[in-house]
Amino acid sequence: MNKTALALVVAMATTPALAADWSTTELHYQLGNLKQNPFGANAEQKSTTNIYTLQHASGWKYGDNFFFIDYSDWDDGQRRRDWYGEGYFNFSLGKISGADLSVGPVQDVGLVMGVNAGGDSKIRKYLPGIQLALDVPGAAFFNTLLTAYIDDSVGVANGGAPKEGNSWMLDTAWAFPFSFASHDFSLEGHVEYIGSRDNEFGDKVKAHILAQPQLRYDLGKTLFNDPQRLFVGIEYQYWHNKFGSDVTESAVQGLAVWRF
Question: Which domain CATH number covers 229?
Answer without folding.
Answer: 2.40.230.20
